[in-house]
Amino acid sequence: MEIRSDGLEVYLKSPVTDDASEITRRADDYDIAYNIARWGSFPHPYTISDALSFIENAAKFQREGLEFHTAIRLVEDDMLIGMIGLKQIDLKDKKAEIGYWIGKQFWGKGYGTQAASLMSGYGFGVLNLNRIYAKTFDFNRGSLRVLEKVGFVREGILKQDTYHKDRYVDEVLLGLLSKDFKHNLKLVIK
Questions:
Q1: SS3 of 95, please?
Q2: Which of these, 120, 124, 119, lies nearest to 12 by C-alpha position?
Q3: Domains and CATH numbers, the chain
Q4: What is the mean pLDDT of residues 135-152?
Q5: Which of 13, 25, 33, 68 has the fewest other C-beta atoms within 10 Å?
Q6: For the chain, percent helix, then strand, then coil, each to nearest 5?
Q7: Residue 98 burial class via C-beta count within 10 angstroms: exposed 0-12, middle 13-18, buried 19 and up
Q8: CB 34 within 8 A of CB 27
């Protein structure tokens, strides 16, 4: 599956086995592992085996309706630069959690914001969600900026919510409601 919208520099595409080496190349970075998840839950070093397992599980969870993950790709050359997805999909309460990572060499270029806008548009427009939320470490300023640019608002601080590496860290809880999503994206889904 592909999700696109005119005028954006990125598009989203379901990962396939052939993406494993590119996923590994982008994900095998200490800063990515440190910034996005409880230490040890995102592999570091990140191997081909990790990527293949992720791709297999992503397809399985999508079939079961539990999660939806896509590769973030550049429109100009189809380069895979990261991953984004919805997890904890709850169609009864119409909510899901968004999560993503981008290869370090692509940080600060607006790609994360575009990808999060696309995924949010898919969640609200196709899955008919009412709410999408995110949790990010309070020290991950880049991720906070991405989410806030899309329209997510800070809803609270989860004090010392996660034991990360060698200490407890706070997480920021952010949310976005369908009625507050202001991006006028015309999604093209293939």
A1: strand
A2: 119
A3: 2-189 (3.40.630.30)
A4: 97
A5: 25
A6: 35, 35, 30
A7: buried
A8: no
Residue 188 CA: distances (Å) to CA of 25, 126, 138, 183 = 28, 11, 34, 15
Q: What is the pLDDT of residue 184?
A: 80
DSSP state of 42: B
- Neighbouring CB atoms inside 10 A of 188's CB total 11
Confidence of residue 181 (pLDDT cuts 50, 70, 90): very high
pLDDT (0 to 100) of residue 9: 98
Q: Of 11, 31, 142, which Cα lies nearest the Cα of 79? A: 11
User: What pLDDT sits at residue 30?
Assistant: 95
Question: What predicted TM-score, i.e. pTM, was given to this entire model?
Answer: 0.96
Contact predicate 156/148, CB 8 Å: no
Contact indicator for 24, 86 with CB cutoff of 8 Å: no
78-82, 127-131, 164-168: segment of lowest average pLDDT: 164-168
Which residues are bridge partners to 162 per DSSP?
169
Contact 24, 44 (CB under 8 A): no
